[in-house]
Design brief:
This protein is an all-alpha fold. It is about 65% helix and about 0% strand.
């Protein structure tokens, strides 16, 4: 591809959905780790409760963002693949993107099912999330453990995704990263 030719970029809406999702994930992940650690240390104070409430609320909001994002993607599509990619790179990129979507939904629903079973649906003492299943505190450990595993899997894929983007930008110097940047770079 000619270095001066403009890469095929994602639409402004797709880029906004991407970066909003990134923001939620990059805030929710460390909050999730900190709140879980505090819970394991049996530190149940206002800070721990606020971390749990914020994490649950952010997950609930992220669900609506992901549904809108996925609907937009399915209706509007995505630009053609970067033309310099090898076929195997295109395949890995597509699998990674759809796996990230799947893991995000799996994270949200495993967490929501876990707090429904516990039950711990209260958000900042202001309202409660609707329960997805009947309370059964003994059964809550399974979906919450799955939630943790999905989180680690997502972290691995996100690291791979970022590394690949940076490799394409700094080593291959192609348009892969520029396709999703908030502004043209």
């Amino acid at each position: 591809m000619d270095a001066h030719k403009e890469p095929l970029v994602y639409s402004a809406a797709a880029r906004h959905f991407h970066w909003i999702t990134v923001g939620f994930v990059f805030v929710m992940a460390p909050v999730g780790v900190i709140m879980a650690e505090r819970g394991e240390q049996n530190i149940w104070d206002g800070t721990t409760n606020a971390l749990y409430s914020g994490h649950k609320l952010a997950g609930f909001i992220l669900l609506f963002i992901l549904v809108a994002r996925l609907a937009y993607r399915l209706i509007k599509g995505a630009p053609a693949d970067e033309p310099t990619l090898e076929p195997w790179q295109k395949t890995v990129a597509h699998i990674t993107h759809w796996a990230i979507y799947a893991l995000l939904f799996a994270l949200i629903f495993s967490g929501w099912i876990g707090v429904s079973l516990y039950p711990a649906l209260d958000i900042f003492g202001l309202f409660s999330l609707p329960g997805l299943v009947a309370p059964n505190q003994a059964a809550a450990a399974q979906p919450l453990f799955a939630h943790k595993i999905f989180g680690f899997a997502l972290a691995g894929l996100v690291i791979m995704h970022i590394a690949a983007s940076l490799f394409h930008h700094f080593v291959r110097k192609d348009g892969v990263l520029r396709r999703m940047l908030p502004k043209k770079a």
